[in-house]
Amino acid sequence: MTLLELSGVSVHYGRIKAVSELTITVNEGEIVTLIGANGAGKSTTMRAISGIRPVSAGTITFAGEDITRLRADLRVVRGISQAPEGRGIFPGMTVYENLDMGAYARKDRKNLAAEMDHVFELFPRLAERRTQAGGTLSGGEQQMLAIGRALMSKPKLLLLDEPSMGLAPQFIQQIFRIITEINKEGTTVLLVEQNAQQALSRAHRAYVLETGSIVKSGTGKELLADESIKEAYLGVA
Amino acid sequence: MTTTTTKTTTTTGRRSLGEWWNNLNRFQQWAILIPLVVFIYALPELNPPIITTEPGYDFPIAMFEVARYALIAIGLNVVVGQAGLLDLGYVGFFAIGAYVAALFTSPDSALTKLPFLAVLPIAMAITMVFGVILGSPTLRLRGDYLAIVTLGFGEIVRLLADNLEPLRGNQGFQQVGHPPGTHADGTPIFNNTDGTPWYWLTVTIIILILVLVGNLERSRVGRSWVAIRDDEDAAAIMGVNTFKFKIWAFVIGAAIGGLSGALYAGQLAFVNNQKFDVVTSMLFLAAVILGGSGNKVGVILGAIIVAYIPARFLGIAEYRYLIFGLALIVLMIFRPQGLLGARQRLLTYGRQAYQRLLGRGEQISHDASVSTDRNGGV
Questions:
Q1: Domain match, A10 and A75 both
Q2: Strand order of the sheet with strand A16-27?
Q3: How crowded is the C-beta side of B87, counted as CA atoms within 13 Å?
Q4: In the predicted model, is pLDDT for residue B344 greater than 80?
Q5: CA dihedral A74, B222, A158, A119 (to 10 degrees)
Q6: Residue A178, Cβ neighbours under 10 Å: how many?
Q7: β-strand partners of A83
Q8: What is the domain extent for residue A42?
Q9: Looking at the structure, do residues A63 and A166 belong to the same domain, yes or no?
């Protein structure tokens, strides 16, 4: 079943078109990845889906509802949650408070403890740091916090924007392993990545974005084997 | 837990002062608060040597000025400190409050006369409306843009006061009203030569506002403000209706500004177009930044400094902008968070939950969770 559908979505920054007539579908239960170079429009697409960037053309449909003009905060209530690029955690709040903010949109605030335990299970490092201010965490820890915080709202769709950015290789693998785990628990994941190797091997389907347009799509395996993809994104000549 | 202990040892005085206060039980807190409040109320009567501003400046009047600045700082702190919206035109709300008080109580105004105390909520309501009018279009802007638009708003209000016929420009409104009550000899208790009753009234209002604002800060509203201040986009994707809460901060701040404007008009018993310039706005903002944006006690301290020092040391009053300017620069270098910086307790579950949290420090190994899979990475 289709959970998220972008059809003909364009996004502008002033007069500059960052994303051009994008059509993407994400089915329930999938990991879908969007790969592409810097400036290809990956993050812009994510920001359009979460609603912090208005779209200039096209429609976004989520769980059968047109959310193109819906406010960002209401999209969270519908079940879209984002771990933004560059982490975007609240630096002045502790780890615990950051996670608490993640559950802001939830009505059933009494069951937060279970969700929080789950996040601490996925990221034991966060449990150790729970009273520490978010801004004092290392890059990898902030990334974990951003993902954990996004999970606190019990999303239907989790948007992950460059979760591996700036991380040490061992952390990158850990993060991707956790993404697969989150997906197996029933959360649909839309993943934006520069680390194409990891993203493609984890994803069910993938789209390749170049200067604001989709140039290729297919299953993760297909694209992993594709010669032009290998050359451009996997560093294999 | 190791992280906690290293933190406590490296904290500054500000942090440990707040922590010390939070660790006292209710009884201890009251045992400190009550004598403090009594002392604050008694100040104009005590007129303590050294602290007193006399003979140069009437001490009770000076104390009223300090209290008025404190009230303004508390209001501006909601906007700047809590929600992180840089408002450079706060004096506009203050002016509107003063003019509303004048229009409804002065015999120079054509409007129906109302009792002064009834005018206070009206002044707040009208400034709130102006808060919405200014906020709705401008709060979609961010940072510098918002600062510039609010700066413009302050100037527009001042220019309207200069030029609108019914606002009487420089001539102004005489005999602005005051709260009821007379002394035995028939002279009103609230008059413009005796600052003490005005001081008491303002301090009482400050306490009420502090309780209200304090409760707001600890509520979902306060958490939303802090989230917006920390990172507006991140707040939005947590599900915070950023626009709504920014408007709320703006409107609550405006109401408090209007209230202090009405009190100012009442005490002075006169309003004209002179006291509402940009520099006054900057002085209000200086009180907030100096004391510690986001910290209620801090901004009161800032207001005391900004209002008291020029009254106490009349010799330097002329140079106060220079001195406060230098003080701000020095502060921004050595203590950018202000004298008493902000640290929010955001947990909605209260103190006990927080302490339980601090006590719970089981060690969990993270190495075990590192994957053994080796084919990835860049």
A1: yes
A2: A16-27, A2-13, A57-62, A65-66
A3: 37
A4: no
A5: -150
A6: 19
A7: A160
A8: 2-79+155-234
A9: yes
Query: CA B68, CA B61: separation in Å to the nearest integer?
Result: 10
> Does residue B223 belong to the interface with chain A, where contact is any CB pair within 8 Å?
yes
User: Could you tell me what percentage of chain A is helix, strand and coil, using 3-state DSSP and rounding each to the nearest 5?
Assistant: 40, 30, 30
Single residue among A98, A133, A151 that ends a domain in this structure: A151
The distance between the two most distant Cα atoms of chain A, rounded to a whole number of Å, is 54
Q: Which residues contact A228 (CB under 8 A, 6 or more apart)?
A: A216
Query: Which H helix or E strand runs over B237?
Result: helix B232-237
Degrees to nearest 5, angle at CA A94 with A89 and A99: 60
Torsions phi, psi of B264, nearest 5? Answer: -60, -45
Would you say the pTM of this structure is higher than 0.95?
Answer: no
Question: Is the pLDDT assigned to residue B356 strictly greater than 50?
Answer: no
The answer to whether the CB atoms of B366 and A173 lie below 8 A apart is no
pLDDT reading at A5 higher than 80: yes
Q: Indicate which CATH number applies to the domain containing A163.
A: 3.40.50.300
Asked if A131 and B226 come within 8 Å (Cβ–Cβ), the reply is: no
User: Is there a contact between A176 and B376 if contact means CB atoms under 8 Å apart?
Assistant: yes
Crossing angle (nearest 10°) for helices B278-291 and B90-105: 120
For residue B22, what are its two tokens?
A: 């939070």
Asked if residue B140 has pLDDT above 90, the reply is: no
Q: Which of A186-195, B77-86, B152-161, B272-281 has the lowest mean pLDDT?
A: B272-281
pLDDT digit string (tens) for B93-113?
999 999 999 999 988 877 888
Residue A166 has pLDDT above 80, yes or no: no
Three-state DSSP class for residue A198: helix
pLDDT band at B167 (very low <50, low <70, confident <90, very high): confident
Residue of B233, B238, B242, B348 to mutate, testing the A interface (most A Cβ within 10 Å of its Cβ):
B238
Q: Same structural domain for residues A95 and A184?
A: no
Domains in chain B: ranges and CATH: 57-367 (1.10.3470)
